[in-house]
Amino acid sequence: MSKPSARARLADAAFALFDERGYEQTTVDDIAERAGVGRTTFFRHYRSKEAVIFPDHDRLLGLINDRLATSNHSTALAAVSDAVRLVLLHYVDEGDLARQRYALTSKVAALRDREIASVARYQRLFREFISNWMGDPTESASLRAELMASAVVSAHNHVLRRWLRGESVDPVAEVDEAMREVLVLFPSRIPSEADARGATVVAFRTGRDLDSLLPDLRRLIEGGAER
Question: How many CB atoms neighbour CB 127 within 10 A?
């Protein structure tokens, strides 16, 4: 069996010490000594004691951004679901480490604040993507994009917390179902540029004959296009 990497040993040592002594009472030197490495090695892998606790959010955000960037107008919502699943799988793959983190952040206020700030970064990324997909610069559209992004992140976090508490045996199936619930809240279709260039159809009943009506219809349509 291969020896765990220094990074993994540091994480294991940190969580063990946090459990034994408490987060505030544990120092970087304590962690390095327990892991059998020097202080320099610790800072080669982690920027701070706090950084040991959280996953590599920058890398995860990069992976989400890459997945969203591969989509087009018609596949955008599928990309959102894939991105959410990607984040969930990261935590599931961590296993007990993710559960230890959850227990620790539940007890330490400073770590809860850090977690909330991290969640906001994910929501901002989804909001920007959804806003671009909608292609509508109005304030009301901006609000809809914010609400949609919030729903996406909330669905993921609901399933993740269930799994962390041992309440979900198949979190991937649950998050897929949760995303189906979320996506029905989205507009079924966002008009594209091609739609804007398409024909306008007007239907109503009148006693006038078609030949006398066509010039008025043409003026109406052209007037609407100029506005």
Answer: 19
